[in-house]
Amino acid sequence: MKAAFIEQPGPPDTLQYGDLPAPTPGPGQVLVRIAASAVNPIDTYIRGGMVAAKLPTPFIPGCDLAGTVAGVGPDATRFRVGDRVWGSNQGLAGRQGTLAEFAVVDEHWLYPTPANVADADAAALALVGITAHLGLFDRTNLAAGETVFVNGGTGGVGAAVVQMAKAVGARVIATVGSEEKAETARALGADVVVNYRTDDVTVAVKTATEGKGVDVWFETLPPTDLDRTVELMAPRGRIVAMAGRGARPVFPNGPFYVKGLALFGFAMFNASPDQQRACAEQMNGWMAAGKLRATIGRTFPLAEAAAAHRLQEENTLQKAGTLAGKIIVVPG
Q1: Is the pTM of this model over 0.90?
Q2: What would be the CATH architecture of the domain defined by 128-268?
Q3: CA neighbours within 13 Å on the CB side: how many for 203?
């Protein structure tokens, strides 16, 4: 099979494109013919060696995939050959990833793809959608009528947060960095859109909440100003932090506990298969109903996986601002 792989961690050009043996499913595993995979920041961190991990050699990066079941291993009972599926959690914990024509996946990391949802859309929503769902519902128990603030409302996770919050009847305030992204955020359902380059975020949030504050603050970016965050929270509000491995913001302890706030940190790949399946099942319902849509910024052929990783790094690490939506890689 064709695949993009590395022999050792390094920059994007470390990714090679060539032939590798097609994998064979073992007990409880499924062979998936990949129609689309998505690129996430964690993929580039692992490929670049920023996240220490024991990797098979050669190693195929990539967490997300969507495609069709091409084979079923012993004791695998959830899917049959020909079923369309999507999933995440590949390329982690020693598992091979998804930048290939085929992948072997433990069946508990796979979910049925709704008939009216394209493979590219399912792949684009996989990791970011499960992440958003875990933060909003497993961690903070978001309820109808509450106000959600999401920093970066058109990014992969941010766009999913906006749509899921609206799907359950919450009000959403989202930040963006351009007028083009503001239009995207409004189209996704954001009630209030704040351009952090031209607007005063503090004033905008206070105005939008009539001074009552935010119930759930979903921080998709490395937190830098928790004083401002705590100031803008409603009493008993909940803050989600899921980015910024090297961030060391000052923590306003007094205002935090006086307001009775809660701070949740999590990484989606630490969630159990049962937890992630619960997210996927609700996501499938929303995707089928058109309430959860993918935002795809660029699509690359598998042979150009290095360019896809380079674009992701430019926007994640160098803050280039040239990407709105997910990067998709397709075989062929």
Answers
A1: yes
A2: Alpha-Beta Complex (3.90)
A3: 5
